[in-house]
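Reopening this ticket.

The earlier resolution said the output was attached, but the attachment link was broken on my side. Pasting everything inline this time so it's all in one place.
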Amino acid sequence: MKNKQTLLLSSLTALLLTTSSIQAEENFMTEIFDDVNLTKLTHVKDWIVLPYIFSTESTGFSGGLGVIKTGLFQPQTTFIATGFYGAEQDIITNGQEDTANFSGGFILFTDYKLPFTNRLFFSMYGMKSYFPKARHYLNGSNNSVQDDAFVTSGDSDFLYTTFRYVLPIGEGIDNPERIYDLKNGFAMNREGYGGGKPFVTGETSVGIKTFYSHNSFENYQDPDAHTLNEWNTAGLRFFLYHENTDFDLNPSRGYQFQVQYSKDFGEGDSLQSWDFLEAKYNHYINLPTFSWSQQNVLAFSAWTGYSFSWDNDNTYFNGTIDTKLDSKRPPPWEGARLGGFNRMRGYENDRFSDKAVFYATAEYRAVLEYNPFRTNKFIPVAIDWFQIVAFVEAGRVNDTYNLDLLQNMKYDAGISLRAMAAEVPIRLDLAYGDEGMNFWVMVFQPFDF
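Inline output:
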């Protein structure tokens, strides 16, 4: 797990557990909080202030202090903020020995209903950070090799906002905030929900997101050449999202789908213009329980996307990008990418990227009857349940959108231990692919919106 944006979700998990054994780097927010509409929590009202420590290849030994607050200003909101700092590390920049420290901060505030509106919600999250040893796969085609990573120190900053309008249909009529009563980590009075007719039942949202990210590469090899030393991207996303499950943070039945179009117009300090169209569908089947389980679920997900703008005739060389070439491609942490804590967990974050992508996964999820922490007063946050999971994944990126996406695919499989902590799902995933094994500590289910 070696890409920067993984850091924040791992840190947030550490905040909930007061311990951490996380790994770090760059694609966390775009994929998680970009796709997740946080369920509104009605039981956790107090401020949680927790220290945490972690050690990763890209950050070194590091620690931080964070705060979590649900129901800030309004009952459906979630607020998280954290600052972090790392021990000094020896690095090499352009052949010269140097030292650097990992440092930064992160803030998130979700689902604030704007004044004088009943259905328009605002969310934002951002990070400013410096990584001593970040790993980037600038040319991560399906046939690329694991050793092609570009290791460099540099900044990693981003800011994302979402304006989401809940349509007055289905559940959006009476409960646009999606405030549920929770008991022992399960949503109450939801027996008749999940799996109804699209747009007649469930909740449907449309909206616009803004995105901005900045990554600098201090270890570029030739400062006098036209090689990349930073990559900035900014633009808009337009989305349609339909949620039709019994409980969006841990569904047992129903489905979800989303269609989203992203566009960087190439204005300002953006490296180049690009676009990306994507669609995702999730489905959940409730199974009979056993004597040792409270809930058994089969969960499936499929995701595909295509960048119309990507110009295959412009190529890259020596692990860097010639800034004279305008390929109109998304950065490796945007667009058609695989690898990391959400998709293809047996591979490093953003390990593969290209013009087109297809991905599918299946999970068996079982919530255990056994929970030694349910009544443990020494645990600073409530642990409502534990869940064991087995999963398989398959996916591929390609330079064209055709049947080749279903051939020579990458595969992995794994197991996971998950828990509902402070009314937020956390997970420890262990996945194995043909490039080795990866261990992920994250918040939220891997593909649930």
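Reporter confirms the inline version is readable. The first strand starts at residue 48 and ends at 56. The longest helix spans residues 6-17.
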